[in-house]
Each structure stands twice: as C-alpha cells, then as structure tokens.
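Below is one protein, fold included:
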Amino acid sequence: SPVAVLGVGGIGFLNLGTNLPDTTPPVISVSQTPLPNANGWNNTDVTVTFTATDDTSIPICAVDTYTLTDEVYGQEVSTYCWDAAGNSAFASHTVYIDKTAPGLIMPSLASSYPVNSYVEFTFDTIETLSGLTSLSATLNGNPISYGDWIVLDQLGTNTFTLTATDYAGNTESQTLQFTVTDPLTLTNITVTSETS
C-alpha cells in the first residue's frame, strides 16, 4: 500500500507493494461450556469450542466443536487450524467429567431395639472417579463417626442419615429408620373379669 514520504520537494508516496509473505500462524482460543467447578470437574456433558483468528485471512480448523459425554478422568480434545498462506497452529483442552454420585454402604440395623441398647454404627462409601470430598453421618441430627458405639436412649423413631459428595459435586444421601422401645412399658393390655 502507498506510504506517505516527506522529502525536500514536499510529500510523495512510495508504493511498498502488497505481496509480503504471511508467516504468522492463526491464534486459537478455547472455550468450555459449562465451565468446570472449583475442583476442575464437570458432572454434565461438556461442549468444547475452538475459535481461530488471523490477521490476513479467515482460518479453517480441522475440528471446531467437541461434545463430550463420557465419564473420563482427563479427556483431551485438540485441533489444527490453517490460514490461507498455509501457516498452522495447534491447540488442545482437557476435560474431567464425573456424573455418578458416590455409592453408599449403609449400616446393618434392626427395625427395633430395646431402650439403652448398645449398637455399633459402621458405614462406608464407594467413589471410583473424581474422588470423595466429604462423608458425613448423623443419628437424629447429631454427627457420628465410623465405628461409634451408641447407647440408644431416644424412645420412638430414630433416624440415621449418611451423605457423601465427590469432587465433581455429585451428592448421594440415604436414611435408615428404626424404633427404640421400652420393654417395661405396658401397652395394649386387655383386662377381663369373670362373674359367677
């Protein structure tokens, strides 16, 4: 293109030409929808989009968009992009997807216990992909730990709750209920009398 040049006789124009070689590759940007959580995980399908820009032409990419549905620890997707001059660029992106909540192993409890029974609470969880971030257990709203022996002194319905959450944000919660009774309490007694 013409460029203005200031000389002794005034301003002139110098034509530098337009056939300078293009040696700059395209610039590739990557976006992910939805974004990962603070732990770097997703618990839904993910769309990855590659967008290329170039100063002199409209670049073409081998793959523009990926839709990822599989539960995988670190699935890498990539693409190459070229401009009109044949310059190429490469970009990749890694996605972590876990859609499955942790599995819970509940304690083995009877449906009913006499008051002041001494019962051990054992429980566990199964998490095979993103990893476990929290496991909490409560009895009637009070926290308990694995292997605790508890004196059952609350008459009536008792509720045990186990909740687990993984790094992808999947949460599973289950409850068990059992009854605590007082054997010394007399109920449903029918009194009959005999007359002669």
Notes: The CA atoms of residues 54 and 150 lie 69 Å apart. The two ends are 131 Å apart (CA to CA). The first strand starts at residue 2 and ends at 7.
